[in-house]
Amino acid sequence: MKVYGADICIDCRNFKHINKLRNLNLEYINIIADTAALKEFLMIRDKDEIFKACRQQGGIGIPCFVDGGRMTLDIDEAFSWIGQPPVREEEILETRD
Q1: 66: left (phi over 0), alpha (psi -120 to 50) or beta
Q2: Running DSSP on this structure, what letter comes out for residue 95?
Q3: Phi, then psi, of 70 in degrees rounded to 5
Q4: Is 0.70 topped by the overall pTM?
């Protein structure tokens, strides 16, 4: 599974923390660290319907989970694809104030 994100995003940092806690080693692609990765993500984001609300609200749409032909912005849905349980509250590293 590929996970597009940016380290400036709280949800992405939480994903990275959970990925490490669970020893999943999912492929994390930092879209702001590499121009090619950003272009790859924007090609998906600008065309796919799941990003419509994000685009309308001025959001980015990360973390974005891609596994084969499946794509979601929901970590629990993505984890279900690989047989992982939903995220538990104690696994969350950072919360919004």
Answers
A1: beta
A2: -
A3: -100, 145
A4: yes
Task: Give the integer Cα–Cα distance in Å for 90 and 82.
Answer: 21
pLDDT tens-digit series, residues 18-73? 999 999 999 999 999 999 999 999 999 999 999 999 999 999 999 999 998 899 99
| Burial class, 19, CB count within 10 angstroms (exposed 0-12 / middle 13-18 / buried 19+) | middle
Report the distance separating Cα 12 and Cα 9, nearest Å. Answer: 5
Q: Look-up: residue for tokens 């597009």?
A: 4
> Sheet harboring 2-5: ordered strands across?
27-30, 2-5, 64-67, 70-72
In this structure, are residues 33 and 62 in contact, taking their beta carbons and an 8 Å threshold? no
Nearest to residue 1, comparing CAs of 60, 55, 54, 78? 78
Is residue 97 pLDDT above 90, yes or no? no
